[in-house]
Amino acid sequence: MKEWPKPTLLISKCLNDHKCRYDGSSATSDTFKTLLPYINIIEVCPEQDIGLETPREAIRLMSQNNSIHLISPKLNKDYTKQMTELADDIICKLKQKDIDGALLKSHSPSCGIKDIKIYYSDKKGSASSKGSGIFGGKLCDSFSSLPIEDEGRINNFLIREHFLTRIFTLAEFKTVYSTNKISSLLEFHAKNKLLFMAYNQTGLKKLGNIAANRLSLNIDEVFKEYYKELCNQFLKLPRYTSVINVFNHALGYFDKELNSKEKNFFNELIEKFRVGKIPQSVIINLLKSYAIRFNNDYLLSQTLLEPYPEELIDICDSGKGTVR
Q: 34: helix, coil or strand?
């Protein structure tokens, strides 16, 4: 069984069962509990860290004088300055810790990364727009190339698979980086070829050129350039058409071994994936079973068949947002 390097994630403290939310509750979830043994965590509760007590009066984002403020309507207090300074301080420290991503609390005016209500007045029922929390927004701006999600969004299996693939690939790369060997980088690139192909074929070519060191850079520069392009490779969810093309490419390795019924079954699963009814892990596991059955060592070496620990595969979720 493969030993996975643990990604280092910044997490909202309440997700780890700390009762630090404004109402004294926590916000842990089964998805996070399953993930926890496989990651290293750095915890943060921005609202507690600026001195707010628990429980506390609810705070909200308000648009005032063409800028966003963090306000306690009931106490008539503005915490924008404290939260902004805290965010800057934490971000500065995080840049020294080499994190692989973040998982933050959804719907939070401090930690939220998107779709947070921004009110235009403190009156009940007032009009609102949406944006990011003060802390979450600054974190996303400062680490724009890293995977940053909230615990609500990763209930969607498309987003969750993408997030897990990113954090474990980045963590694996850092173990390769620590060897300071071009041979290790070339091996890493080779076993990720099909995974990278599913995300972006142009990016795959760029990564290949960097690993081959066609510009005759020193080793450290090669690794830094590769890491930069690796982060870019995963910025967007892969297009389902690209993923399907790679799945069909992988199936081609068993063209002579599979019968027509098996091929038809595979095509039926591809169609279900295309319309968002099943996650890609269903097809990946089928391809993996073929690779084991027919002793295809090349495919078994490919991270496409296991981009993150199999214990984290879970197709039971809300299904929201899976329509193509």
A: helix
Neighbours of 155 (CB within 10 A): 20
Q: Where are the domains of the chain?
A: 8-155, 159-323
Give the position of tokens 């390795």.
253
CA–CA gap between residue 274 and residue 30 (Å, rounded): 27
How confident is the model over 213-228, as pLDDT tens digits? 988 899 999 999 999 9
Q: Indicate the SS3 state at residue 117.
A: strand
Distance between CA atoms of residues 247 and 280, nearest Å: 9
pTM for the model? 0.93
Q: Which helix (H) or strand (E) holds 246?
A: helix 240-251
